Amino acid sequence: MTARAFITGIGGQDGTYLAERLLADGLEVHALVLAADGHPAHCPEAVVLHRGDLADVDGTRRLLLEVAPSEVYNLAAISSVAQSWDEPDLTARVNGQAAVALMESARQVGGVRFVQASSAEIFGEPAESPQTEATAVRPVNPYGAAKAYAHLTAGVLRQRDEHVSSVVLYNHESPRRPARFVTRKITSTVAAIARGDADRLALGNLEARRDWGWAPDYVDAMVRAARAEVPGDYVVATGVAHSVRELVAAAFSAAGIDDWEPLVHQDPAFFRPADPTELVGDATRAREVLGWEPTVGFEEIVRRMVEADLTLPAG
Ligand code: GDP
């Protein structure tokens, strides 16, 4: 029988790249989709879609027992820090409790390799930089707190020999990133300016620094974590931080626009009440244990995103 994988969060950037990767590896790929969402963009036809809600713990458990996968990737989440402030209880249910329920469902299936998509947000405003797997987990928003609960429980379940890994993902981008994230907001607006469809780019904090990587590389880290002999926590990051300002400069440069300063304007509406000034990860463990390394650098990520946006139809 062909090995099966089960993905939650197939509608997101990572879910579609992961599905492509697992299909290429020869696995049969099953995925959970919310009934309201329809067939996700970029989702390969070969993926077997199951309608359901991760927060419906009993329904999801029945489904997992029926599919009986050998690899489970939990990517589904309330993905916005802003929404987590508006709906902290929903965030706790989906990002925290439902993740742990899925880990327990996987245990009931038996022999499953489980990968939890965690986030640099579990570190909050870290006292040390770069962060490692040993950095104190001290979230500063409901999103980070719920992700922290799932991350910590993964570690607890490993103590009774469950193959549950938690990958602590830093910002990772691609042309499939929605425009609510700053990278895609910048590349899509710069492309619109280059086409003459927009005249300026309004942003918040230009000095915030993030560790931006290439999404398919981060999916590769997830697959390596699932297939490693021993489960663990892994920081997945490039180790290099850039400012939002550098991102803007790289995007305009990729679009062939040199004199960009007058086109960018700072709008208080896009500043956040609490915003880590710098998040940068040290992926030494992922490199040493999983043989993982990022393959696409910052400038190239931005160039690929701008090029993709330049070829999109206007609108
Ligand atoms: P996050 O790190 O997961 O919150 O990813 P984002 O891409 O949403 O934000 C990255 C950084 O860009 C944060 O420090 C934001 O404060 C900063 N930023 C500056 N201007 C903007 C903006 O207009 N939109 C967004 N989304 N972020 C912005």
Automatic annotation (TrEMBL):
GO molecular function, a single term: GDP-mannose 4,6-dehydratase activity
Residues annotated as transmembrane: none
Keywords, sorted A to Z: Lyase
InterPro entries: GDP_Man_deHydtase, NAD(P)-bd_dom, NAD(P)-bd_dom_sf
Cofactor(s) listed: NADP(+)
Positions of the NAD(P)-binding domain: 6-305
EC number assigned by the record: 4.2.1.47
Top-level EC class: lyase
Signal peptide start-end: none
Coiled coil: none
Database matches in Pfam families: GDP_Man_Dehyd
Family: Belongs to the NAD(P)-dependent epimerase/dehydratase family. GDP-mannose 4,6-dehydratase subfamily.
Identification of the protein by name: GDP-mannose 4,6-dehydratase
